[in-house]
C-alpha cells in the first residue's frame, strides 16, 4: 500500500509538553480529517503563533487565501504556512468536502525549515510527481495511530524525513538516493560504472547498458541521481581511490591508474574537488579524517 495511513482510521492527535522545548522540532498535532461544513476555517492571525502547518489534500477541494490571492487545493496539492502570518484556509461554499492529512509542528528548526521552503517553493505545492514528503507524513500518522505513546525522539526523526523531502523538492531534485531503488535502466548503467570504473567509459557505453538513447539516458540519469553520468562515474572512482589510499601503501600515481584517472595531477585535482583535500592529505589524515570507507553524496 502506497499510503500507510490508509491502513488506519481517520483520527487526530494532539501533543502537549510539560518541559521546555528540548528538541529543535516538536509535533503539536497530526491528523487525517474530512470536513463538509464551510464553518471549517482557520485564520493565521487569530490562532496564537510560534508553529507551522503542512496540510495535504487527499480528495475534494479546499482553499487557501494569502493576502488577496486565493488558491484552490485539490488532490495531490498541499500547503505550508507559518503562524502567525496573513493567511486563511477553509472549505469553500461550492465544495462538498475536503479530505486531508495535516501536521502542526513548532520549534526553532521547524520555523527555519518551513520559512526556507516557503521562500523557495511558495505556500502551495503540487506533489503529483514528488510524493516523498507526503509519504513521510502518511508514515508518521500511521506510527502515531498504532502507538500514541511514540517517543518524541522517534517522532522528531519522522518529522525530519518529511522536511528533508520538502527540501529535496525545493532544490528541484525529485531523485532516489538508494541505488536499489533506481529504475532498472539506471541501475544497469550504475552497475556498468562500478564494474568498469578503471576503464574508459563513454556516455554511449552507459546509454547502451541502460537500453536508452543517449539524450534520454542523460536526462533520466540526472533526474534520478542528481548527478550527470560522468559526475557519477567520477564519484565512484573517488570513493574507490579513497579506499585504496586508506587501506594500501600504493602510490598516488598507481591509484590514479587503477581508478581510471590516468594521470596523477588530474586525479589529485578531481579528488580535491570531491573531498576537500589532496590524496596525500587524505592519506595522512589532514583536513579530513581518513575513514574506513568514504561515501560521497550530493
From TrEMBL:
InterPro entries registered for this protein in UniProt: AraC-bd, AraC_XylS_family_regulators, Homeodomain-like_sf, HTH-like, HTH_AraC, HTH_AraC-typ_CS, Tscrpt_reg_AraC-type_HTH
Ranges of residues in domain HTH araC/xylS-type: 187-285
GO molecular function: DNA-binding transcription factor activity; sequence-specific DNA binding
Gene3D superfamilies recorded: Homeodomain-like
PROSITE patterns: HTH_ARAC_FAMILY_1, HTH_ARAC_FAMILY_2
Keywords, comma-separated and alphabetical: Activator, Cytoplasm, DNA-binding, Transcription, Transcription regulation
Stored Pfam families: AraC_binding, HTH_18
Protein name (Swiss-Prot/TrEMBL): HTH araC/xylS-type domain-containing protein
Native source organism of the sequence: Paenibacillus rigui
Amino acid at each position: 500500500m502506497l499510503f500507510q495511513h490508509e491502513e488506519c482510521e481517520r483520527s487526530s492527535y494532539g501533543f502537549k509538553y510539560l518541559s521546555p522545548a528540548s528538541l529543535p522540532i516538536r509535533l503539536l498535532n497530526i491528523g487525517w480529517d474530512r470536513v463538509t461544513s464551510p464553518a471549517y476555517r482557520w485564520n493565521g492571525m487569530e490562532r496564537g503563533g510560534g508553529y507551522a502547518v503542512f496540510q495535504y489534500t487527499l480528495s475534494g477541494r479546499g482553499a487557501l487565501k494569502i493576502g488577496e490571492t486565493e488558491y484552490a487545493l485539490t488532490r495531490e496539492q498541499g500547503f505550508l504556512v507559518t503562524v502567525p502570518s496573513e493567511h486563511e484556509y477553509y472549505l469553500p461554499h461550492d465544495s462538498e468536502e475536503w479530505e486531508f492529512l495535516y501536521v502542526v509542528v513548532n520549534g526553532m528548526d521547524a520555523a527555519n525549515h518551513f520559512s526556507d521552503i516557503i521562500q523557495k517553493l511558495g505556500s502551495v505545492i503540487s506533489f503529483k510527481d514528488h510524493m516523498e514528503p507526503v509519504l513521510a507524513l502518511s508514515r508518521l500518522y500511521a506510527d502515531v495511530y498504532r502507538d500514541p505513546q511514540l517517543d518524541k525522539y522517534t517522532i522528531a526523526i519522522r518529522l525530519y524525513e518529511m522536511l528533508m523531502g520538502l527540501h529535496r523538492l525545493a532544490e528541484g531534485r525529485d531523485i532516489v538516493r538508494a541505488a536499489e531503488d533506481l529504475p532498472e535502466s539506471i541501475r544497469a548503467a550504475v552497475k556498468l560504472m562500478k564494474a568498469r570504473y578503471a576503464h574508459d567509459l563513454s556516455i554511449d557505453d552507459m546509454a547502451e547498458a541502460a537500453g536508452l538513447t543517449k539524450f534520454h539516458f542523460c536526462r533520466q540519469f540526472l533526474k534520478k541521481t542528481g548527478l550527470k553520468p560522468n559526475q557519477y562515474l567520477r564519484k565512484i572512482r573517488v570513493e574507490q581511490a579513497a579506499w585504496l589510499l586508506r587501506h594500501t601503501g600504493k602510490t598516488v600515481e598507481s591509484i590514479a591508474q587503477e581508478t581510471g584517472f590516468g594521470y596523477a595531477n588530474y586525479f589529485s585535482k578531481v579528488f580535491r574537488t570531491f573531498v576537500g583535500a589532496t590524496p596525500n592529505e587524505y592519506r595522512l589524515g589532514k583536513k579530513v579524517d581518513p575513514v574506513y570507507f568514504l561515501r560521497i553524496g550530493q
